[in-house]
Specification:
The complex is a heterodimer of chains A (about 700) and B (about 425). Chain A is α+β, with helices and mostly antiparallel strands and about 700 residues long. Chain A contains 33 helices and twelve strands. Chain B has two domains: about 10-165, Rossmann fold (3-Layer(aba) Sandwich), CATH 3.40.50.720; about 170-200 and about 210-345 and about 375-415, 2-Layer Sandwich (Dihydrodipicolinate Reductase, domain 2), CATH 3.30.360.
Amino acid sequence: MSRKWFAFPFLVLISGALAGPARIEELVGRLASEEAREQARARQMLFHEGPETVPYVLPLLSHEKESVWRAAFNVLEDIANDVSAPGRTRERAAVAQELMSLVAPDKSNALKERGLRLLPLVIPQGQDLAPIAALLGDAEMREKARAALLQTGTKEARDALRAALGTSDPPFQVALLNALGELEDNDSLETIRRFAVTGPAEVQVAAVRALAWTGDPSLIKLAKGVRDAAAEGLKSEAEDALLRLLRVVARKGGNWEIAVKTYEELIATGGAAAKGGSLVALGELGDERHVTVILNTIGGDDPELFRIGIDALGRMQGANAARRLASLYPGLSREVQLAVLPILGKHEDEAAAAVLKEAAQSEDRVFRSAGLAGLGRSGRSDAIPFLLAAAEKGESNEKDQALGGLLAVGAALGERGKTHEAGQAYLGVWNFGGSNEWKLRALEGVARHPSPDALDAAMEASRDSALRETALKALIGVAGALVATAQPEKAVEAYRRVAALSPDMASLQKLAEDLRASKVDMNLAEMVGFLTRWSLVGPFPLGENKEGWSKEFVQEPAVDLKACYTQGDQNLCWKEVRGSGDLGKVDLLAEVASCEACLAYALAEFSVEEEQDAVLSLGVDDGEKVWVNQSLVLDNFRIGGLVVDQDKVPVHLVKGANTLLLKVYQNNMPWEFCARLLTPEGNPVKFRQ
Amino acid sequence: MRRRDFLKKTVQGAAALATASDPLARAARAAVSPNEKVTLAVIGCGGMGGRHLEILSANPEVNVAAVCDVYKPRYLDWADKVEKLSGKKPDGYQDFRNVLDRKDIDAVFVVTPDHWHPLLTILACQAAKDVYVEKPVCTVVEEGRAMVETARRYGRVVQAGTQQRSMPVFQEAIKVLRSGRLGQITNATAWVGVNEWGVGENPGPIPEGLDWDLWLGPAPYVPYSRERQFGFMGWWDYARGGQLTNWGIHLMDIVQWGIGQDRPLSVCALGGSYRGGAGADNHETIEAFFEYPDCTVTWEQRPWNIHANKGYGIKFQGTEGQLFVDRSTVVVKPDKLGIKEIVGEPEKSWANPEHHANFFHCIRTRERPVADIEQGFRSTTAVLLAGIALKTKRKLYWDGDAERFLRDEQANRYLSRPYRPPWHL
């Protein structure tokens, strides 16, 4: 047996037997051991000893073995995190004080570094940070000290960072300013502003960046000055700092004019990135007055700016911008016209629509395609004739463009409740799409926004197995639309087709809800194959040993519906009932008796026109025995709720009259069943009752 | 015999994406010149970078113009490989700034160790490049928010490398969830079985051709060790959580997509390294619990972990049924729901061509991609929060709008990290 196996229970014993310091010392010893699993366990357990552990573990932080000092570090980190939970003020301060000893001047740099990683986790507000601040002047440790103060983020940390600005070289000043900017320190604003005015260029840029979060519009002039004075290598950084400031200024509100004016200046004089950022901003913030500015900027040969500018135009809100763009359109270059056409489709504007329609009929196929793309985006019903024409007769690319556009227009119109027009668009896709991919999209559209005009298309689709599932959804919607437009005969046609497609339970339920709401006179249960007329007799006792399950209370299986049966002091005779609800369910509690551990019989007689194989599909609470035409086909003694179509049994039906006899077991609570007949393919069998 | 439906590549329904075969995608492309290739560079030519390069090199819509890696032998090797695969040799660079200076490059793939993801993305956006950034998109919450802000400020398309959003098997799973047939989703569980990380390092001389200072970038300076260069996921300075942020982001991304929420209300976590590794930065065993409005989410990370015969995956638990999904199948129980098992096409590479295609489509159309940076950031945030809860050893309450912990000043210190100069966000 291995030593490791023995160590584990020994450790458990030790843990229980020792207390306080002795226990901690034992665990610390394990932490310093060679055994990985013992070390892991010790790490886990030491944390639970709490902050008293710290002085015992601290010495291990300078252990010569890496696995030991790392394990010790992790224990201290766990404790530091734990005591920093809200409310544990005293413990937190005590641990912080202990850990502060790691950065004392007499400690090695390695130990200081470990201390600087731990301290930010635990330093509370108000803690004196002089030992860390002192390290800001140490060339080797200053960056780690800065990082620790940044992460700590207390007022004392910010004060220390700010105080070091005056005594640091420019590269470190930049780092300190970055930190103060991240901390969004209000107390440092004046100091940072001074550095933005005086000091080397890189420091000025860092200072502007550190002020950007304020969104103070009075800083824009300062930031522009820094940017103008920056050498080439710093220009893009300076512009980025200015852009950061402008974004916050613009967002704060009340300074839109100055922000937008500065963006325009940057577009005129800035580098590529600044131009791009400014174009984006004008797209978000600008209005029709800036359309010309953007168009002028993208007129050059910079593909990046072109794309950004077009995107910016597309982001502009409101019809005025679209109108302005439409008015300038004739004077634009071909390339810009092509790029602008899809944008015009985003806005509901007559002028924009006129441009799109003209483009959609252009001799130039590229313009036709772009015009169609724009019309597709427009969501306008007057776009439909243009799109239909292209869908019918267009070349391949245009056709796809038009079909996609029809779908988009259909969706937009459907969302606005214009289902008739939406239907026109979807039918266009159905008629001219050609492939099943397009037809499917058309059907999906009809399902979302059903139009009564789509009945024929949906019926046709329901005969294609690849489209059937979506056609089903479309038919349900179309049937509802037919009812809503006072076309009940056609609605019935649609409902019958849905029923014949053997929909899943969710679709059936939707169908049932729609039928109820529409008040169309149809029996859903019979439509989807449920037997609804039954003769019942009961209750009969199950017996303590379940003997009733095999006892023939009636002449199983050739029952006599005129017979009656004596059960105790009751005379039980067959009675006729009809199943109720959407599934023709028979509630035996209501129709037979409220009993437990009992049985009832149910007989259905029905006729079919042809001899055929079928599937008897049952849902029963609780269990059932089943005879079809007097042959036992299922013996299912179970306790459980009714689940529609849970039990499926292959059966054979004869031409003419058939019988179905059920013996239904009741345990307790609900007692009910439903039964339907399906073809082997899953469609309802046609029968008469 | 149970019937199974094989998934077609073509995506259908409201969750449809612009895949190569999708008719709407073809229609969108019809308005753009078919000759317009996307010119791009890949920054980071390690394991995952190599996978991307294999797929990109074979893509006729793409011109791989440059490869970049701080370790010269890697980018030299991949420049040759790309030439063999595509017929054209890309330029090779050690310093990404040379890549970003090039005007001809439209987009970059950022496939470096995690600690470089945010800054590279930000700098690339500033240099007017669109970005595909691998997951996790950031190592702290503050970085992620800065990435989103920069992408919006410069109008860039930024796709997160959560490629499962482009995989039909997950899209189908989402459709089933949205159908309501499982009832209300009250819990989701994501799980993975993984190995532990090593402990310790052996500092040594910097290998020939490696710019160690650039490799470290914004992370604290430490002497070189092979353990850091080739095992970055085991170190807190480069990866905040190890497998939690490696696999966790993929799975939690789908969880959040499935439950329709991306701002947890609270999180707590337990865990450790129980077989050894007391000195390891990142744990092997983590159990995290998230609370979202109307549901809970569980994250299980263990050395070995199987549910429903899946060694990793997600289970959505509804009031009417369960759904299990991983990269190969979707299984729905109980059978009476009538939803047959869905089998996806076998995954050939972790670099996903459909996810690439969506990125390129959005570069042309300027739409937001399927895994836009905001969504990638929110999915990354979830696992980062779990890592912080594990560290602080207490339940944390999250304000998803303010992106701060409530009533826990110390936990909020974990939301940012200092950047080593000259780097800054």
